């Protein structure tokens, strides 16, 4: 009916419904708390980053790239080799009477070395001189008879055969005299061999035989070994790939300087020049042997000594030169760190050339006046901030 309120039954919520509503509200509140917590953590980390100071500049050392001359050298191992090593042998049999040298002595060509007993050969010389005198007299008598027979033959006083027999008699006597002369010369030569002299100038080694021993030509050890020290050579080998640049300049008559260093390659012993190359490449090693000559006036180079050889092949003039310590090696190849304005570095790829000691020729990538880092490169990267010794300190950054 109009104007009258219809009575409806009131439904009261049960206990289960109320628990579900409270659980739903709890999950919503928990999610809001988690979101708020994550937001607070992110905000805190960002604020910490903003307060963190920038990375400190890296302390390095730098050097300036310059123009200059650099030597093109080839390095090799060499052996000091004398031009003459002579084992003094006896050329005659006999007793060794006297030694005329001291071990380790420098002797000159023609100096007395040893004396062998000459008396047997002097006696033989006297005997052959007597034979020569006798046979010379026989020859003289035969020649006189030949002159007389020739005159009688011309007068037709003797037979032709008698005259010709006398001609042959003279020739026979001449042969005998020449034989005697040869025996006399051999005896005199043997006597000369008894007096042994130095065949070359050089250093006397250790004596191989003592006075009183009977020496023979069949002995293989000899009396002493003499080694020539001045001048002296060094034999060394280079790879066949390096031969063309050496051979081309050597064939043109250019004097190529050779330096000999000690075994560790630190001390310079002597300076000489290249004088010859081998006539062929060793196919088993792929190398070719070269000989350098040294005056060795101070006798510092000793036979069979091992040395480090430095052969000057060429000289690069007015080229860009950088310290070898500046060259780094990596994926892009050889590179350097170039100091930029504002105390930063730039990684620059370079092409290197010959190396000479602590210097290297840079064929491309650098120019004279560039500053390159030579110490402290292990922590650098492209664009990194650096500080150089003696440079003013960078201004502080607010926290």
Automatic annotation (TrEMBL):
One protein family per Pfam: BSH_RND
Residue ranges occupied by any Multidrug resistance protein MdtA-like alpha-helical hairpin domain in the UniProt entry: 125-193
Domain Multidrug resistance protein MdtA-like beta-barrel: 231-314
One Gene Ontology molecular-function label: efflux transmembrane transporter activity
Segments forming domain Multidrug resistance protein MdtA-like C-terminal permuted SH3: 318-379
Major subcellular site: membrane
Keywords from the named record: Cell inner membrane, Cell membrane, Membrane, Transmembrane, Transmembrane helix, Transport
Entry's transmembrane regions: 24-42
Coiled coil: none
InterPro entries given in the database record: MdtA-like_b-barrel, MdtA-like_BSH, MdtA-like_C, MdtA-like_HH, RND_pump_MFP
Cellular compartments annotated: Cell membrane
Multidrug resistance protein MdtA-like barrel-sandwich hybrid domain: residues covered: 85-227
Family label: Belongs to the membrane fusion protein (MFP) (TC 8.A.1) family.
Name this protein carries in UniProt: Efflux RND transporter periplasmic adaptor subunit
């Amino acid at each position: 009916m109009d104007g009258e309120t219809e009575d409806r039954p009131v439904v009261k919520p049960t206990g289960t419904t109320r628990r579900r509503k409270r659980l739903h509200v709890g999950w919503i509140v928990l999610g809001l708390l988690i979101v708020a917590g994550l937001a607070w953590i992110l905000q805190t980390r960002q604020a910490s980053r903003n307060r963190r100071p920038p990375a400190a500049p890296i302390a390095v050392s730098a050097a300036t790239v310059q123009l200059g001359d650099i030597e093109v050298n080839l390095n090799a191992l060499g052996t000091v080799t004398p031009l003459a090593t002579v084992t003094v042998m006896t050329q005659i049999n006999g007793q060794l009477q006297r030694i005329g040298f001291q071990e380790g002595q420098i002797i000159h060509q023609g100096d007395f070395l040893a004396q062998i007993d000459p008396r047997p050969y002097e006696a033989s010389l006297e005997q052959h001189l007597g034979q020569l005198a006798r046979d010379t007299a026989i020859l003289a008598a035969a020649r006189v008879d030949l002159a007389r027979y020739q005159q009688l033959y011309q007068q037709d006083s003797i037979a032709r055969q008698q005259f010709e027999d006398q001609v042959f008699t003279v020739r026979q006597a001449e042969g005998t005299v020449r034989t005697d002369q040869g025996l006399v010369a051999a005896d005199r030569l043997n006597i000369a061999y008894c007096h042994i002299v130095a065949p070359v100038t050089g250093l006397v080694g250790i004596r191989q035989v003592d006075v009183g021993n009977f020496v023979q030509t069949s002995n293989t050890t000899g009396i002493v070994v003499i080694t020539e020290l001045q001048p002296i050579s060094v034999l060394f080998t280079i790879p066949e790939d390096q031969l063309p640049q050496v051979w081309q300049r050597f064939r043109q008559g250019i004097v190529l300087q050779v330096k000999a260093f000690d075994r560790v390659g630190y001390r310079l012993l002597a300076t000489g020049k290249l004088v010859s190359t081998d006539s062929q490449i060793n196919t088993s090693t792929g190398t070719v042997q070269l000989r350098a000559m040294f005056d060795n006036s101070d006798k510092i180079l000793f036979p069979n000594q091992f040395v480090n050889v430095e052969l000057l092949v060429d000289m690069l003039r007015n080229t860009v030169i950088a310290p070898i310590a500046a060259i780094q090696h990596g994926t892009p190849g050889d590179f350097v760190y170039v100091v930029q304005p504002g105390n930063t570095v730039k990684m620059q790829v370079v092409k290197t050339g010959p190396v000479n000691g602590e210097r290297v020729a840079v064929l491309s990538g650098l120019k004279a006046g560039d500053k390159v880092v030579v110490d402290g490169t292990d922590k650098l990267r492209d664009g990194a901030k650096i500080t150089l010794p003696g440079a003013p300190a960078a201004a502080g950054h607010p926290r």
